[in-house]
Q: What sequence folds into this?
């Protein structure tokens, strides 16, 4: 098996620790027992220092042998081909996983991230709030009737959807008991807990190095 | 080959005609010479009348024989498995197509759609404008150096990205000659023109029926 390398930043401020999207890839590899290493690009000048590898200056991106692939959603779909633990192999199960994976990226996160951004810009009652409420309500109705989004089992669709929903501001929005139980259940998986702890530990360790290098 | 059915609304107001996302699926089928039929759910009460088939009350969704799949991005990835014309079959070409497909959905459309929405709510200078400008500028730099996003040829990544970028407000934002030439080039394809004309014609034809049924 070719070696998997997950690329992320060498450091981030405290706020995003535990939420940088390399976590999605670490988590998937942990679920599937796929060996991987983590390597870094500099957080400083990130808008320009790795555009040849990620044209928007973002992380993560993934090396799989000779292949290089960016966008966390694309990396997850790529990893899912390597292990049935991430996506079932029957056509119906695969189609369900695919639709809910894209749903997390394009029907939920397309609203949650801009809404969150307007919130932290100081606009908690912004024009996206009604739209967010609708989408979350529809999803609550789905999650009230099933344990997993696709194929009656854990898949990358749950990994992604739980990652979208666990953002504290989103989690605190409204009263959605099924969604809350879902997030708690999915993020209690050992693979999530390991990936989360590893990411936080990596960025904490980088604090010391960064302090040493700072001009005195 | 099993029959493909693309589901959309039975009618929409003039504004969204030519932009409803069933167009993405029609377009892909036209590119790949995949036979399909179009069927409809009622636009009225759309938030509740087909939740068993699309849990957010949206369109399109697709039937492929026994399979049912929603989310236009997921449907495109599903259709791409049926025809090499939509996605190359070598691992590198496939990975590139996948990453740019997800990029259109989660790095571009995640900004363009909420920004557009705030615009039509009367906030043209909204807080998402800087973010939109950055993303579009990064993409402009990519498109200045290549004709197609992935694998040196047309793929579903171009279909999706051009569909994201052709929204009039987005197209008019800033001066991005490479992106403009790209949108013009991709939407000049016969498959796009047929899909677009078919959608507009369908909704126009529905006007007459709707007028008949309106209480006199």
A:
């Amino acid at each position: 098996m070719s070696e998997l390398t997950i690329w992320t930043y060498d450091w981030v401020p405290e706020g995003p620790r535990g939420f940088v999207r390399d976590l999605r890839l670490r988590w998937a590899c942990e679920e599937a027992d796929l060996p991987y290493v983590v390597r870094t690009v500099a957080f400083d000048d990130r808008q320009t220092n790795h555009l040849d590898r990620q044209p928007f200056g973002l992380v993560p991106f993934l090396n799989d042998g000779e292949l290089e692939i960016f966008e966390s959603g694309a990396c997850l779909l790529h990893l899912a081909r390597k292990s049935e633990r991430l996506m079932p192999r029957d056509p119906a199960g695969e189609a369900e996983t695919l639709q809910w994976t894209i749903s997390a990226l394009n029907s939920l996160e397309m609203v949650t991230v801009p809404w969150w951004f307007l919130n932290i810009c100081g606009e908690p009652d912004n024009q996206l709030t009604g739209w967010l409420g609708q989408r979350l309500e529809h999803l609550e109705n789905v999650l009230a009737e099933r344990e997993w989004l696709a194929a009656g089992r854990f898949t990358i669709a749950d990994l992604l959807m739980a990652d979208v929903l666990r953002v504290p501001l989103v989690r605190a929005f409204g009263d959605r008991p099924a969604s809350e139980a879902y997030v708690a259940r999915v993020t209690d998986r050992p693979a999530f807990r390991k990936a989360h702890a590893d990411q936080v530990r990596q960025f904490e360790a980088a604090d010391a190095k960064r302090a040493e290098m700072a001009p005195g």
In short: Chain B touches chain A through 49 residues (CB under 8 Å). The radius of gyration of chain B is 18 Å. Chain B has nine helices and four strands. The mean pLDDT of chain B is 96.
